[in-house]
UniProtKB/TrEMBL annotation:
GO MF annotations in UniProt: ligand-gated monoatomic ion channel activity
Entry superkingdom: Bacteria
Residues in Ionotropic glutamate receptor C-terminal domain copies: 67-287
Gene3D superfamilies tied to this protein: Periplasmic binding protein-like II
UniProt name for this protein: Glutamine ABC transporter substrate-binding protein
Boundaries of every Solute-binding protein family 3/N-terminal domain copy: 67-287
Entry keyword set: Signal
GO cellular component: membrane
């Protein structure tokens, strides 16, 4: 009897130990599986984070490496023109250079003429235009403008020895203007009132030559532009009446390059604050 009880006790103990052993194995297996899943999730999250960081870095690098194509006029001194060395210089060119250096972006200037510059902008062939471009409500419907960088106005120039001293004396005559400019817009707005016709030209140099050659008795142009040419020996004179004009701005196609406009505005504010802006104006416009 004692022997049977001892054997039964031993058997029960063995079963108990076996049950404990089975529970421990199941718990260990579950823990191992959970740890593996956690490790896989962490690895996946890390991979996703690394990929996102790489994409962000690549995007930033692409933005910083971009070279913006900026179109401009060919002859619109003192804002853009070729100097004796054949380099494109002027107020617009110097302001753009100073702003780009201040903000750290790269650009390439393409001189194509004012009308061609705006056409290229609308066709997506360039990123921006700086060409003594007046900020108007009509243009703001198509373009995003920077803050104004110069306040201008329209003047009428005639031959140096001309007796024309008022709009009334233009009656029955032909006058010259550059296509797409505020000078052209103003001339056409008063043409019927004063009885003259307007012939449009692609660039300022050709327009001035039309007056010098007698093809037109006067031309309408932004006063600092024609005034600069007269100071350099152009055989015209600027009449004292200056019509109020619009301010000049740097333009991009609406909604296309907001970061470029923002950089231009920040850079313009900085060069005005540090004196560089006034230094540029003093280089080209005599006091």
């Amino acid at each position: 009897m004692k022997k049977f009880m001892a054997l039964s006790l031993a058997a029960m103990t063995a079963l108990a130990l076996a049950g404990c052993g089975s529970g421990t194995s199941a718990t260990t297996a579950a823990a191992t599986e959970a740890a593996t899943e956690a490790k896989d999730t962490t690895a996946a999250d890390t991979t996703a984070a690394d990929t996102a960081a790489a994409d962000t870095t690549a995007a930033e690098k692409t933005a910083s490496d971009k070279t913006y194509i900026i179109n401009t006029d060919t002859t619109f001194a003192p804002f853009e023109f070729e100097n004796e060395k054949g380099d494109l210089v002027g107020i617009d060119m110097d302001i753009l250079k100073a702003v780009a250096e201040d903000q750290g972006f790269s650009y390439e200037v393409v001189p194509v003429g004012f009308s061609a510059a705006t056409t290229a902008l609308e066709a997506g062939e360039c990123d921006g235009v700086i060409a003594g471009m007046s900020i108007t409500d009509q243009r703001k419907e198509k373009y995003d403008f920077s803050d104004p960088y110069f306040d201008s106005g329209v003047g009428m120039a005639v031959l140096a020895d001309s007796d024309i001293d008022s709009y009334e004396k233009l009656n029955g005559q032909n006058v010259a203007a550059k296509i797409g400019t505020e000078g052209c817009k103003f001339a056409e707005s008063i043409a019927d009132k004063y009885g003259f016709t307007v012939t449009q030209y692609e660039d300022s140099a050709t327009m001035y030559q039309a007056v010098l050659a007698g093809e037109a008795v006067a031309c309408f142009e932004d006063y600092p532009v024609v005034g600069y040419e007269i100071s350099r020996g152009l055989g015209l004179k600027l009449l004292p009446t200056i019509e109020a004009g619009n301010s000049y701005g740097f333009a991009t196609m609406k909604g296309e390059n907001p970061e470029l406009v923002e950089m231009f505005n920040k850079g313009l504010a900085n060069i005005k604050a540090n004196g560089k802006y006034q230094e540029i104006l003093d280089t080209y416009i005599a006091k």
